[in-house]
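Running this now, will post back.
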Amino acid sequence: MPLYKRILVNESCKLYIWKIEESLDSLIAPIMLTTNSQQRLDSMKSDLHQRGFVSIRHLLKEAGYSDSDLYYDEHGKPFLKDGKHISITHSFNFTAIIISENQYVGIDIEKQRDKILTIAHKFTPVEEYKTIANHAALISKLTIVWGAKESLYKIYGKKKLRFLEHIYIYDFNFEESYTKGEIRYRGETYPFHVHFLEFEGFTCVYAYS
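Update: finished.
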């Protein structure tokens, strides 16, 4: 399948989503990988992870880049050689990237699952959600909050942030598909715009400065 969705976030920021339906062979045929990326691909034991890895290179191609334009720092945060900001995500059969010329960006895709109820206390004050009686709505909202915090965590790009203590997401209405978030760390506050969308049982959240 070709590109699943393209979103123009603003005049300098674009988002691309791929739905993985192809075989690994058909995905990799038109893609040129660096030696390092080929080694990473060969080390992956899961076929889905391999296809996700290669599909991200297709998204890069959609955005005008090749695998050789992408590199990672010591914390695993991705960068583009031309200086533009990028964030990457992969969940089951969906992958996505977001690229901005001048804004810090983060993106996360999550499958909507009951499992999030068991870990919610680790990333958000659960008492704030007791008024949500609808089970599906509760799963949806918690998944959005998790994705938003994950997106901000990726923007910060270091391992010291705690979701519960250092990342705050403002309350929101589903209909608006938008909220705000903040990283509050070491006496500093960094604000971000947060958008979200849902499709095929998945939630995509992206944030930018």
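The chain has a mean pLDDT of 96. More later if anyone needs it.
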